[in-house]
Amino acid sequence: MHVLIHSPNGYPVTLRSLVKNDSGILGEFFESLSPQTRSKFGPHPLDREYAKYVICKNIDVDNVSRFIIVTETQVVGYFIVDFNEYPNERSRYSSYGIELDFALDPVFAPCIHDNYQGQGLSKSGVGRIVALF
Fold first, then answer.
1. Number of domains the chain contains
2. Model confidence over 30-71: pLDDT tens digits?
3. Backbone angles phi, psi at 100, to 5 degrees
4. Which InterPro entries does the record match to this protein (predicted)?
């Protein structure tokens, strides 16, 4: 996937699939996030080493689809669509009376850079990503 999208304020960015050689720019993105933004993201650590040695190394083998939003110079958004089964998620949703089918109900985790939050980038990307599944 490689799609030009526009945020609601008209700023053009590219939404695309994460690829193995993106570990450097993804690591820079992770390390540029504020502690507040980092605290809202739970699926995995947000650091350069994790980007290089876990995320990008395991593309296409871990049942997780990952996407990034990029400007001409940097990553400004990161999205995970994860179809792996997590017992804690099953229990959490079950406590609300919702039974998950992990083949149909993935974990979805968006993360937008602090400087781009509130501009509609997540909303612009989500529709394109959901259409793939």
1. 1
2. 999 999 999 888 778 899 999 999 999 989 888 899 999 999
3. -90, 145
4. Acyl_CoA_acyltransferase
